[in-house]
Design brief:
The complex is a heterodimer of chains A (131) and B (141). Chain A contains three helices and five strands; from the N terminus they run H-H-E-H-E-E-E-E. Chain A is α+β, with helices and mostly antiparallel strands. A five-stranded mixed sheet of chain A has the order 1-5-4-3-2. Chain B has a five-stranded mixed sheet with strand order 1-5-4-3-2, covered by helices on one side. The longest helix of chain B is centred in the first third of the chain and has 17 residues. Classes of the chains: A alpha+beta (131), B alpha+beta (141). The interface between A and B is large, with 56 and 47 residues.
Chain lengths: 131, 141
């Protein structure tokens, strides 16, 4: 097997970060392991930059939506960016939210984050899902 | 964690064997979409960079290029700025600032899948209107 490239390692790291923080309900542990300052935060709802803002935001989401989970549909790594296409569901019956994420990685840690979110509609013009 | 994942760990080898599309071809197609078709309003170029039925996952558009071409023609152009791009194998994620999407500044990520010639076969997107204010000092871009 070929040696893993930095890009492959970055992708694994982001997927592990995401799984541990959200599906395994350990945002503080995940932040400590995978996030580094300044963790510049471009999601307008998150209260501030840095790991603390991320933890605070995710924990508030768990309080509001105890059944919250995410399914990663696509992940690509390119240079120091990793991008994900994600289906976030707040509970079993939730049609959910489509999310696209960009993370910037430096020296094996996530240092910057952007995302966009859009509610998944009940019907689409093509009949295809948003994923 | 495997249950929550489809296949984010596609290896370089798998990506290459599935589609050996060259990065330069993808970049050329992206330049045509954002520079010429969206910003330049040259809607007629869209069918030239698409292969097959154009599988569409944007919930408001059907498969195919016809309705999208009509939308761009009616709008004259779709002003936008490409902020960052991530390409791996046959997929590209493009983070875009749409200056006036349905009347609002909108943050978007377009995801495209390409064939070996760098033509688009499938498109997904996520679009979020940029809010007036943010809880942190940064923009969405």
């Amino acid at each position: 097997m070929a040696t893993r490239t930095v890009e492959e390692k970055n992708k694994e790291l982001v997927v592990e970060f995401y799984e541990l923080a959200i599906n395994q309900r350990k945002p503080a542990e995940s932040a400590a392991k995978y996030i580094e300052h300044p963790y510049t935060q471009h999601n307008p709802e998150v209260p501030h930059n840095g790991p603390a803002g991320f933890i605070q935001f995710i924990e508030a989401m768990f309080k509001k939506h105890p059944g919250l989970k995410v399914v990663i549909h696509k992940a690509v790594a390119n240079e120091n960016f990793v991008a994900l296409h994600v289906h976030l569901m707040r509970d079993e019956s939730d049609p959910g939210i489509a999310v696209a994420e960009f993370f910037r990685i430096e020296n094996g840690k996530i240092v910057e984050h952007w995302d966009v979110m859009q509610p998944v509609p009940g019907k689409t013009a093509s009949g295809n899902s948003m994923f | 964690m495997e249950s929550a994942l489809e296949s984010p760990f596609r290896t370089q080898e798998e990506a290459m064997s599935k589609s050996p599309v060259e990065r330069a071809l993808i970049e050329r197609t992206l330049k045509i979409i954002y520079d010429q078709i969206f910003n330049g309003g040259r809607a007629e170029l869209l069918p030239t960079i698409v292969a097959g039925p154009y599988i569409q996952h944007n919930p408001l558009f059907p498969n195919g290029t016809e309705q999208l071409v009509g939308y761009i023609r009616q709008a004259k152009s779709v002003p936008c700025e490409v902020k960052r791009v991530a390409v791996e194998g046959d997929l590209a994620f493009v983070h875009v600032r749409y200056l006036n999407w349905a009347g609002k500044e909108t943050a978007g990520v377009d995801i495209f899948r390409f064939d070996v010639d760098g033509k688009i076969v499938e498109h997904w997107d996520v679009l979020q209107p940029v809010p007036e204010t943010a809880n942190n000092p940064n923009t969405m871009f």
